[in-house]
C-alpha cells in the first residue's frame, strides 16, 4: 500500500488514535485503517512531516503533534481528539525510540535509558490512562507495538529490549484491568522494511535478506497493519491480553554456525 495514494470512500464512524504515525509502521497502520473507513488521528514529534502525511492520506486523517512521554501533551492531545470527533474507538501505541543499538552497557547513560523507557513504556501507559474512559464508552481496543526484541537480543540493546519486554507485560496487565469493556493486545514485529515506498524501490533488499526468513521474505508495514486492523475488529472480540509475533517465523528458527 502506497500511503500517498490512500483514501477512504466512506467513514465507518470509528475513530482511532495512532502514535508515531509520521512514517514507518505507524504510517502503514494509519493508511490501512483509513482504507477501511476509520477516521485516524496521527500523532508524532515530527511537526513538519506529520501534517504533510495526514494531508496525503485524505479527509479521514488529521495530525496533532505529541511527545507521548509528556503527560500534559498526552492529556491535551486526547482532549483534542474528543473535542473534534466526540469519541474514541481505538488506540494504537506505536511511538518509540526505535534504534535498538546503543553503546556498551558500561557506557549506557541513565539519561538514555530513562528516555527510551519513558517513550516506549511510560508513553503507552499514559495514553491508556487518558484514553480509557472514552474507549470504555464504545467498547474500544488498544494495540501496543512491542518487538521480537522482547524475546531475543543482540548485544548492547538493554534499554530497547527492556522497554519492549515491559510493554508486553503492560499489555496483559491492562487487559485484566480494563476488561471486559476494553480489549488490549500487543503486536511484536520482527524485521519489517518500514522505509518509504520510494526508498524501498530505489534500494531493494537482497535475496539473502528475504531467504533467511522461514516465510521467504522480509516483512512489510502492511503485514503489521493487517494484524492490527484484525485486532481492532469485531472478529477479534474474544482476544485480549495476548502478544502476536509478526516476524516471518524468525523467532522459531534455531540459528547456529556449523
Structure description:
This protein has helices spanning 24-35, 49-57, 71-85, 110-137, 158-178, 197-202, 207-211, 221-232, and strands at residues 15-19, 39-44, 61-65, 90-93, 141-145, 183-189, 192-193, 219-220, 243-246. It has 258 residues and is an alpha/beta fold. It has a single domain (13-245), classed as Rossmann fold, CATH 3.40.50.720. The strands form 2 sheets. A 7-stranded parallel β-sheet has the order 3-2-1-4-5-6-9, sandwiched between helices. It has a two-stranded parallel sheet with strand order 7-8. Helix 1 (24-35) crosses helix 8 (221-232), helix 3 packs parallel to helix 4 and helix 4 (110-137) runs parallel beside helix 5 (158-178). The model is unreliable at 4-9 (pLDDT under 50).
Short description:
With 258 residues, the protein is of the alpha/beta class. The chain has 8 helices and 9 strands. Strands 3-2-1-4-5-6-9 form a 7-stranded parallel beta sheet, with helices on both faces.
Give the biggest sheet: 7 strands, parallel
Radius of gyration: 18 Å
Uncertain segments? 4-9
Order of helices and strands: EHEHEHEHEHEEHHEHE
Q: How does CATH name the architecture?
A: 3-Layer(aba) Sandwich
The number of distinct β-strands equals 9
Q: Structural class of the secondary elements?
A: alpha/beta
For the record, what is the CATH homologous superfamily label? NAD(P)-binding Rossmann-like Domain
Please give the share of residues in helix.
40-55%
Shape: globular
**Count of helix runs:** 8
- The CATH C-level name is Alpha Beta
CATH topology, by name, is Rossmann fold
Number of domains: 1
Provide the β-strand percentage band.
15-25%
Mean pLDDT score, rounded? 94
Q: State the distance separating the first and last CA atoms.
A: 39 Å
Strand order of the largest sheet: 3-2-1-4-5-6-9
Amino acid at each position: 500500500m502506497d500511503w500517498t495514494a490512500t483514501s477512504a470512500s466512506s467513514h465507518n464512524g470509528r475513530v482511532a488514535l495512532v502514535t508515531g504515525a509520521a512514517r514507518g509502521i505507524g504510517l502503514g497502520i494509519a493508511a490501512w485503517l483509513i482504507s477501511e473507513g476509520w477516521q485516524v488521528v496521527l500523532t508524532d514529534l515530527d511537526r513538519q512531516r506529520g501534517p504533510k502525511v495526514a494531508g496525503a492520506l485524505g479527509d479521514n486523517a488529521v495530525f496533532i503533534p505529541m511527545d507521548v512521554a509528556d503527560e500534559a501533551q498526552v492529556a491535551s492531545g486526547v482532549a483534542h481528539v474528543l473535542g473534534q470527533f466526540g469519541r474514541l474507538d481505538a488506540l494504537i501505541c506505536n511511538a518509540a525510540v526505535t534504534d535498538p543499538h546503543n553503546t556498551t552497557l558500561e557506557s549506557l547513560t541513565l539519561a538514555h535509558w530513562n528516555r527510551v523507557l519513558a517513550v516506549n513504556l511510560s508513553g503507552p501507559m499514559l495514553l491508556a490512562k487518558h484514553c480509557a474512559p472514552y474507549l470504555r464508552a464504545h467498547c474500544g481496543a488498544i494495540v501496543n507495538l512491542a518487538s521480537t526484541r522482547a524475546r531475543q537480543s543482540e548485544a548492547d540493546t538493554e534499554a530497547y529490549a527492556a522497554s519492549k519486554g515491559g510493554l508486553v507485560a503492560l499489555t496483559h496487565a491492562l487487559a485484566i484491568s480494563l476488561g471486559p469493556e476494553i480489549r488490549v493486545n500487543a503486536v511484536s514485529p520482527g524485521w519489517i522494511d518500514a522505509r518509504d515506498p520510494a526508498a524501498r524501490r530505489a534500494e531493494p533488499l537482497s535475496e539473502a535478506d528475504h531467504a533467511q526468513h522461514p516465510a521467504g521474505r522480509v516483512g512489510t508495514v502492511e503485514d503489521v497493519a493487517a494484524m492490527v486492523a484484525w485486532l481492532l475488529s469485531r472478529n477479534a472480540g474474544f482476544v485480549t491480553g495476548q502478544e502476536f509475533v509478526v516476524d516471518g517465523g524468525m523467532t522459531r528458527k534455531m540459528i547456529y554456525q556449523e
